[in-house]
Amino acid sequence: MREDFYMPWCRSFMERLVLVAACVIMPALAMAQRYPFHNLNVDDGLVQSQAISLAQDKVGNLWIGTLGGLSRFDGKNFTNYTVQNGLKNNAVWSVGIDSQNNIWTGGQNCISKFNGKTFTSFKVPELQGRSFGNSQEIAIIRDTVWWRARGSVFYVSGGEVKNFVTPGPPGRVSAMLVEKTGLWVAVDSGVYHYANRVWDTVKFNIPLGQQRPAIRSFIRDRAGTVWASSDLGLYRIERGRFTPLRIVGDSVISAARISSMTQDRSGALWIACSKGVIKLADNTIVGYSKHNGLSDNAFFDVVTDREGNVWMASDGQGIFRFSGTQFTVLDESMGLPSGQVTAIASNNKDSLFLGTYDAGLYVFTGGKVSLVDIPVRPAPSITTLCYSSRGKLWIGTRDHGLWTYQNGIFRQYAAPERSTFPSNSINSLYEDTTHQMWIGFVNGALMFGNDNFNVVLSRNLPVLSFLSIGHDSMLLATEAGLMLYYAGIVSDFTTKTILDSANIQCLVLKGRELWAGSSDKGVIVYDMSTGKTSVINRSQGMRSDFIYNITEDGEGNIWAGTGFGLHKIRLREDGSVKVAFYGKGQGVAGMESNMNAVLKLKDNSIWFGTTNGALHYQPQNAVVSTGPVAIVLQSVKLAGETTMDRRWFDSLDTWYGIPYNLRLPYKFNNISFTFQAVALTGAQQLMYRYMIDGLETPWSAWSPVNSVSYSAFPPGKYIFRVQCRGNDEQDNKELAYSFEVVAPFQKTYWFRLATLFACILAGILFQYIVNSRNQRRLKLLEKLREEELNKIRLRTAEDFHDEIGNKLTRINVLTSVLKSKIALTPDTERILGQIEENTHQLYGGTRDILWSLKPSNDNLFELLQRISDFGGELFQDADVNFNFTGIDEKWRKFRLPMDMGRNLIMIFKEALNNSLKYSKAANVTIAASIKNRNVLHLVLRDDGVGFDASIRGKGNGITNMHTRAGRLNGRLYIDSRKGKGTIISLTFKVPITK
Q1: What span, in angstroms and rounded, lies between the C-alpha atoms of 140 and 727?
Q2: 836 to each of 664, 816, 830, how far by Cα in Å?
Q3: pTM, full prediction
Q4: Which class in CATH covers the domain with range 494-621?
Q5: Which of its termini does the chain have fewer beta carbons within 10 Å around, N or C?
Q6: Whole-number Å distance between alpha carbons of 964 and 986
Q7: Is domain 3-325 in CATH 3.40.47.10, yes or no?
C-alpha cells in the first residue's frame, strides 16, 4: 500500500468524519449478520491493493485502475498492465471505455488509450506545474472522451487533448457529469449546467448558517433525478435547486466524504465514502463496514455491472462485489466461536440453535449469539439437533450420548445406564407426526415414545436419516441401503432401481416422489406411484455427487447441500432438470455442507450448516443470477504448431490474437479451441456446450469444461459454436467462429469441375471436328446439288422457252390468220379476242416462270429490278407516272430461294395490276429499304380513289397476296380509304448467302 498517498487524504478528512454507522437505520438481525461481500485483492491477482477507479467494457470485463497499474478481471482471472506493458505511469486515476472497446486511462500528466495491444498516450501541457490530486473522471459520450483532471475539463478531438473552458476560476472543477444533452460541472461551491452552448447556474437550498458544499461527484438516476455528493452530504435537484437529502427531518449523510455513486438494478443508490459504503433505498439508509462484512477503509469508486453486481474500489483492500442478500452468514466474525456448524434447530419463534463440531451448542436470538453450556467438559461435538413439538430441544452428540434441553435444564441419556442404547454416538434425530422421536446411532436405531426408548434396529448399522412416508411407515437410511419400519418390523426397502445400490445419506418426500441424497450417485428421485427413477448428478449440472443434506423450499424446489456448494433443483413437467448452483459468487461462504444440517423455517427461509458458518437463505431478497455477459474465444491452436502461417488468415484479433477468416491447408486439420464466458458473478459455475456446423455431430453435454480439441477435419467450411449458461438458463450466450480447411488441389471442387469441364470440352471438340467434317461434306453435296439443280433449271428454262414459247407464238399467228379469213361476227370476234388475250397473258406468265428459273436471277437486286421492269412496262401506255426507288447493288448478296422470289414477284404484280385497273391513280410508287436484322420493307403507294379495305371484292387477289406473304414469313398491311389512295406494306426477313 502506498502510505504516501493514503495518509494525507485520511488526515484531511478524518477530523470531520462522522461515523456513517451512527446514522444508519437497519434491522437488528441485519446488524448481527455478515453480508456476502466478495473481496478480490492482490492475493487473487489484482495488480495493487489501492483501487481508485472502475469501468466495465463491452465484453463484460471489469477494469480496475490502481496506484500500481491497470487490471482486467474476467470473472476468473486478472490480467495486469503496468509501465512495462506500455503504461505511461502506474498510477491510474480514472478509467473509461469507448464504443470500440478501447480502454482510456487517466494518469498523472496524460490520458492514454489502450486497444488491447498498445497504449497510446496524449500529453496535456497545460497540466504541468499544477497541483495534483486523486480526483479524476473519464466520461465517454458519442465517442467523445471527456476527462476531468487537475481541476479542468478536457476532451479528446483529432488525436489531441483540448481544454473545455468552464465558468469560475480556472483549475477548480471538482466534479462533472457528461450527458448527451449537456454537461454539469462543479466549480468551488458553484454548480453549472451547459446546454445549447449556454451556461446556467444551479442554486442550492442551504439551511441558515450552513456553508455551501463542495461537490465531489454527480449521478443521474434512472428516474431522471440528478444527485450530487459533497463534503457536507448528499444533494438532489428539486424544483431547479440542489436540496440536501433528509430522512424524517434529519440529515442522515452529513460529514462523510462521498467520492462516487452508482444506482443498482433495484433503484438503490450506493455511495462510496471515506469509511465504508452507504446504500440508500426507499428512504432507508444502510451502512456497510467491517462490522457487517465489508471494510472500514475509504472507498473511491462504485459501479453497477451489466449483471447487476455492485463493485466497490477500496483504498488498501482491493475491490469488493455485492451480488444480493439472499445469503447471509453467521460465523466466527459474528461471535460464533466455531465455523463448523453441524446441526441446526429452531423453536419457530425467536431462537435458532446451532450445534458445532468443536465448541458445543449456541443460540442465536435478538441478533446475538450466546453459548448454551452443556454440562460436560470438554464441550461435546454436536452431531444433530431436533426441537420437538412439545418445546424440548433434543441434542445428539458424538461419544456423549443423547441430551434434552428445556426451561434451562439439561438431561442426559447414555449407555450403559440406558441398556437399550447401542452406543453414545448419534447420527440423526427425527420427530414424526405422532410426536415420537427417532434416534439414529452409529450402530442401530431407537424410537422414543410413551417415555420409553424402544429398539427399532439392532443390527450393527449406522442410521443416517429418517423419513416418515405414512402414518405407520418409516424409512431408515443406513449404510446397507434403505430400510422400511412397518408394524414393528424392519425390512429392506427394495425398488429394483439404482436406489437399492446407492449409499443414501438424507431423504425428503415431495408428494409421492422420494428424493434421496447419496454419497456417490448424486440425488436420486424415486416415484413411489410409478416405480420410475431418475438421477441428478454432475452430468445434469451438479458440482458434487456427495449430498450431505436435502430439503424442499416453499416453491417446490429441492435444495441439496453438497461437498461443493448448494444446489437448487427443479424437475420440469417435460421431465428435464433445472439445476442452479450457488457458491462463493452468490455469497455462500462455506462451500462444504454438513450431514443433515439443514432447517426450513416457517417464513420459507432455510438455514444450512457448513464448514464455514451457518448460511441463511432468504428467498424474498433479490440476488444477481449468474449469467454470462459474452463469450470470448481465447485461443485457436493447431496440434504440434506454436504459430500459424500468416498466409492462412487475414488478420488477428487485437485482444486475444484469434485469426480472422482462417483457411487452413488440409494437412493442418487438428484444431483446439479455448473459450471463456465473461461473467463477473460465479464464473466457476458457468456451463458450456459446443458443436461444429459442417460435421454431423450434436451439441455436447453441458459441462464446465472450456476447451475442446478436434482432429482430422475433412476439407470444408465450418462454424465452431459455443453456448454458455449460468443459473438463468433463459439467458444463454452463443459464440460462433468460422473457419475453413482447404482441400488439396486434386480434391477441390474447382479441380473436379475443371476436369469435368475439360472432358466436356474434349467431347465437344471431338464432336465439333466430326460435325465440321460432316458439315463440309454436306455443304459439298449441297453445292453439287445446287449446281446440278441450276443446270436443270437452266435446261428447263431453255426447253420451256423453245417448246411453250414457240407454241404460244404459233397460236397467236394462227389466231390472226383465222380472223382474216373468216367473216367475223360479234361472238367470233369476242372469242378470238379472248384467245389472243389469254395467249398473251400466258406468254407473259411464261416469261416470269422462265425468268425465275434462271439461277442468276435469285438475288434480291434482280428480283426487285424485275418488279420495277414489270411496273414500267405495265404503266408505259397508261397515263400513270410509275417510280421504283431504293434498289441498291449491295443487295445482290441477299439470295432468295426460287419460291420466295416467285411469291414476292406475284404479290407486287397483283398489286400493280390492281392499281392500273381500279385505282385511277396518277402516281404509283414503290419504295424499298433494308431495316435492322436484314428485314426488307417494301411500300407501294398510289393516289387513286382508294377502296374500303374492310370489304373484299369477289376476286381472290388480296387473299392470294396475304397467302403469299405468309409463305415469306412476312407481314402484309393494306391501308386504303375512299378518296385517299392506297398503301400496301410488306416486311420480311431476307437471308444472306456468302
Answers
A1: 33
A2: 99, 8, 10
A3: 0.64
A4: mainly beta
A5: C
A6: 11
A7: no
pLDDT (tens digit, 9 = 90+) per residue, 469-508?
988 899 999 988 999 999 889 999 999 999 999 999 999 9
| Torsion angles phi and psi, residue 219, rounded to 5 | -155, 145
From the centroid of its chain, how far is CA 787? 80
Beta-bridged to residue 720, according to DSSP, are 692, 737
**Maximal C-alpha separation, the chain:** 181
Closest CA to 355 of 393, 389, 305, 312: 393
- Following DSSP, what letter does each residue of 337-402 receive, concatenated? S-S-EEEEEE-SSS-EEEEESSS-EEEEETTEEEEE--SSSSPPPEEEEEE-TTS-EEEEESSS-E
| H or E element that contains 566 | strand 566-571
Residue type at 754 in one-letter notation: A
Give pLDDT tens digits for 85-139. 999 989 999 999 999 999 999 988 889 999 999 999 988 766 555 544 557 899 9
CA distance 42 to 44: 5
Nearest to 351 by CA among 328, 372, 325: 372
Cell numbers at 601, concatenated: 423455517
Name the phi and psi angles at 779, rounded to 5: -65, -40
Report yes or no: 341 and 356 within 8 Å, Cβ to Cβ: yes
Handedness of CA 243, 245, 247, 249 (dihedral sign): negative
Q: Which CATH superfamily is domain 859-994 in?
A: Histidine kinase-like ATPase, C-terminal domain (3.30.565.10)
Question: Alpha-carbon Rg of the chain, whole angstroms?
Answer: 53
What class is the 630-741 domain? mainly beta
Q: How open is the CA angle 773-855-969, to the nearest 5 degrees?
A: 80
